[in-house]
Amino acid sequence: MKLLFVASLTLLTLSYLDQVDSSAYDKIVYHSRIRAKKQGPNMCALQQVMGTKKKYFSTCRNWYKGTICGKKAVVLYECCPGYMELEGMRGCPAASPIDNVYGTLGLLKADITKRYSDISKIKEEIDGSGTYTMFAPTDDAWDQLDGVCTALEGNVNNELYNALHYHMVNKRLLTKDLKNDLKLESMHNNQGLHINHYSNGIVTVNCARIIHANQVATNGVVHLIDRVISAVGSTIKEVINSNEELGSLSVCIILYSLSLNTFLKYHLLNSMQCSEAIMSGSVYETLEGSNIEIGCDGDSLTVNGIKMVLKKDIVTSNGVIHLIDQVLMPDSAKQVTELVGGSQSTFGDMVSELGLSAAMGAGTQYTLLAPLNGVFTEEVMSMDQRLLKIILENHILKLKVTLSELYNGQLLETLGGNFLRVFIYRTAVCIENACMVRGSKEGSNGALHLLTSLIKMPKTTMYELLEADGRFTVFLSLMESAGLTELLKQEGAYTVFAPTDDAFDGLTEEDMTLLTNDVNALRTILLYHFSKGVFLNGGLEGGVTNMIKTIQGNNLQVLSVNNSIQVNSVNVPSTDLMASNGVVHVVKTLLYPGDLPVGREELLLLLRRLIKYIQIKVQRIQRTQLKERVNSQKSQATKSPVKVIETDPSLIKVTRVIERQPTVTKVTIEGEPKFTKVTRVIERFSKRH
């Protein structure tokens, strides 16, 4: 036996207490009533899979998709359980008549079950006193048994009687009582029935789905089920040992011990998943610790998107077995190169073709940073092979780094000897300019992370990048005048929204002089374009306003939508120009904090010409108030000369000279977010200045 499993394998699901609201079924039915309210009273909306008789009170997810197990579903309107139509009236205005369990079988058109109750003498029980719950198979369910029904009818006092008793419990149980993982004793030798109540509203008994529940009778309740159930007494291990198709698995259990072998644990789920409860793909954790996706495609079950289930719902006393025809290999048992999936196949092929796979020696751990296939455009693929190899070397790390081990500011050494920076955001993780998407995996000798773009190694500082670009001459000139050029050159991690020369169209030499002469005001404006930290487009949370604090102190409001961004409602035509000390985003207008007023009239007029997207606030000083305050201080004047003290040049300065006792008084004009200092200098001169 070359392979452990050649012909078949089992996907085993152990029963485990899965806390689910016991009324999930009732909630689904309630929503079905709401969807059908326009059809009349007590009507329910169901979905029926096209080409089949299968009908569901479906979840919102299936309802709005219009599909069940990937197949188109049509909408049906029927009376909700417990109600019936009246001729000439809309909907289902009448409550169904209440009868004993036997009579209720006829009401539900479970004619074969009712007939079998007659001939097996079960009728004597369910037609009399007592309290019962009967899981009654539909007529279609009995028809699926083919020749089995003939054998049952040939031994009505024994086989048929026992079969019906196995569908009965001697107490009344509504769906709210049928809790998940509930074990019931049937009326056939107290043999067990296994109840599962799933969050999608599906309720099963030994994996048979309840399709019409809670039909209350005078002596119990009837639930219609979609298949005939048979008694089970064997455990999963006992079924494996006795099933010839599972011989390889049985040998493996003996040799390696089922509860200890990682490989086998990958085939075990810690919950019981019956096929009828699976209406769409869902992810489940295996006992090995990894996740697998169990889904459906029509009547077929799928595992990780592949149809591989040969036989489903082999019910045992401690779970259920689904027989599959392929070996499931956990990621933890794979080499890192084997983790590369279909969406990254181009990267995998290029790594192999360029000889990089051979560079990853045995016994050494690596991390692959795999760009998605769409990244490899015709332009990329037409590159010189030597250059492409250098680029891809920077997508292979020299150590194994899982997603949980990444942190902001971390440096990761690549196969090419370079170091990549890690940036962590609220909803994203990026490495240099490339951000990750879901799908990270961990193998036996490494890890795999998926990227949205090729990693571009920065070679210049922000200053060198802007200077070489040629579109930022005015911005660089203003940075020099403000003494801030070093900010663009020094080591660190910064984000700058750099205005192009277009932002300064119409600026005269006189305007430049006005800006550069008031250094403090200029620095305030320019530092509003800078933030500490590298904020990439892909790192911004989409659809919401991201508040980014600037070095100036006020916030930038950055919105990311459909892979483009706006800052303070201004479009950003070019993003993520990476530098060794930060990232540059390009804007075509000067930015200014909307809540910061301007005090100087000439500066205000200039900024209003340059900045159109906001109405800049103005802060003025009332001259009458100033005069009153100055006059009140005259009596305190002295002859001693005092030098003029200049205040914040970005706001209004008022200097008054009055002969008398010198005193300096600060008059604060209230206003947000800054204050204006007014200094009066009183001095005795031979003549008035």
From TrEMBL:
Q: Check the record and name the PROSITE patterns matching this protein.
A: EMI, FAS1
Query: Per its UniProt entry, which superkingdom is the organism in?
Result: Eukaryota
Q: What would you give as a GO molecular function for this chain, any one?
A: cell adhesion molecule binding
Alphabetical UniProt keywords: Disulfide bond, Signal
Q: Which GO terms describe its cellular component?
A: extracellular matrix; extracellular space
EMI domain location is 40-94
Q: Which residues form the signal peptide?
A: 1-22
The answer, when asked if Zinc is one of the entry's keywords, is: no
- Name of the protein described by the UniProt record: Periostin, osteoblast specific factor a
Organism equals Astyanax mexicanus
